[in-house]
User: Fold these one by one.
Assistant:
Number 1:
Amino acid sequence: MRQALARVIDPEIRRPITELDMVPRVRAQGDRVDIDLRLTIVGCPAASAIERDVRAAASGVDGVGEVAVDVGVMDAATRDALIARLRGDRPTGHPFTADSLTRIIAVTSGKGGVGKSTLTANLAVALAGRGLRVGLIDADVFGFSIPGLLGIADAKPTQVGGLIMPPRAHGVAVISIGMFVDARTAVSWRGPMLHRTVQQFLTDVHFGDLDVLLLDMPPGTGDVAISAGQLLPHAEVLVVTTPQQAAADVAERSGLVARQTGQTVIGVVENMAGLAQPDGSVLELFGSGGGAETAARLEVPLLAQIPLSIALREGGDAGEPIVLRPGDAAGDAITRLAGELAARGRGLAGRKLGLSPR
Ligand SMILES: Nc1ncnc2c1ncn2[C@@H]1O[C@H](COP(=O)(O)OP(=O)(O)OP(=O)(O)O)[C@@H](O)[C@H]1O
């Protein structure tokens, strides 16, 4: 029976419920089994799903006829012990240190409106589509748009003790300041507060084991970029720009600030590149060359050119990332970029190599 129940996964914490001390007692009498199920918090949104899965798992065991589930909430001591275990042995600090196995990719741009958030959301979904465990932090605290782009504009994270469970969308675990403030509230915090937000997202959000953590950075070179640089000096950075030559200056600057904090700029993505017309010509609404120019100045490769695309924009507005529907030139370019990033693997930046002198 325990083995069967171990296959029931808490959808938010994403571990077997038996590992989470959620099943303190199981009694079998004849063909009847009584299961005590203890949820982490009162009003747990996943309660009915977990209870259903427990019933299904127990009913599947040979010889079981009747299943009775007593649903309650775990006591404070058990919950505190669980939270301590989930946090691991790090009372302070975040788990995404240089020698963690998670690859961190911060997506930045010199100015707003270049499609950085749209690209980040689609990239996250495309990476998750390749089977990677992906987390996404919307660090664009003033202009958060990730929840809407992923179709979870109204999602509110569950909090267990001081631990925040990130809502999931299209296979990606997502956290955004937009989940904690009213959508119409303007965020006007000063530096130290912003620093704490990024730090809290890194420390108190239970992402579990991740292959990739993406950060959608605010445009420009402000406090959040500097905080993120201090907290994640080993992060890799993608710089997004448009084809406009004038955009190259500010894009270059955002890459340089990242570099000053020790982060590694891995490449440039040019978004809003030429739009193919029905007659075969290409409409270069924003000119051309900005991506190549930025890449040359930062001495990194131009990793992708994402064309203007109505479907990409519509997918963002609808919360259905375009990468889920192959066939659009922009979506396909982002999917290719995800493939390339996954294939390149993580650089060795900041990582202990584990080599010892003989
Ligand atoms: N390749 C594209 N083709 C057409 N529209 C696009 C493309 N990329 C982004 N957009 C649209 O441009 C607008 C700005 O995009 P987005 O919000 O992603 O930019 P951003 O750089 O993250 O801006 P900010 O940092 O100011 O939030 C959105 O309406 C988005 O749908």
Number 2:
Amino acid sequence: MATAHIQAEFGEIAKTVLMPGDPLRAKYIVDKYLENPIQFNSVRNMLGYTGHYKGKKISIMGSGMGMPSIGIYSYELFSHYGVDTIIRIGSAGSYVENIKIYDVVLGNSAYSESSYAKVQSGYEKDKSYPSEKLNSYISKKALELNISIHEACIHSSDVFYVKGGTDYKKLVQDHGCTCVEMESFALFHNAQVLGKNAACLLTISDSFITQENISAKERQSSFDTMMILALESAIGFQ
Ligand SMILES: O=P(O)(O)O[C@H]1O[C@H](CO)[C@@H](O)[C@H]1O
Ligand SMILES: O=c1cc[nH]c(=O)[nH]1
């Protein structure tokens, strides 16, 4: 039965879902990599599809931007549709010199100022964590595919435009954050409370160090290295 945000019937969504923030990034991956895709969601234009990659069933769905949005979709996927594993595939801004534009980061923790986890279940800490088993699988897969990744702490921010600019050096120094995005703290938390698996792969689209950034079109359709790592990890981990 449908939810208020996802129109799919039970069984139409695979056990493993890849989630970019951008629904058009979801469509790009589906068009390029999936066999026989079927669209299961168009509510609010949050496009979701199920198809096959190398013969294995997999779903790809946009999460929207920010923790409230991925909080809703990931919760419904895990608790209502029987999804076991979500791998976020996002863009991020680098806070450190050695993580450069187009580098791929695998989050080993997410620091946040957000109240998401406290409101959701009373969790008071400011870091949440991915599934260890899933992360170590992705890490092994990256080695096997000769894809270089940084395993690092992510800053999950509620605010894209910070007055006066983000004090990123303080976030690096005080919390070990290496890059910023806006969803993984909530995704990791939902997976934790529901006993499911979550991980977050990011491609660097902006650098706080060099001020470089890539276009909206590139954020939609140029993250193939991360996409291949996510697809290969998803089908192997199932
Ligand atoms: O490219 P996505 O996956 O949306 O991720 C990042 O991009 C958006 C901001 O531009 C935020 O959602 C942030 O987390
Ligand atoms: O949240 C984000 C995502 C990409 N780039 C940023 O600077 N912040």
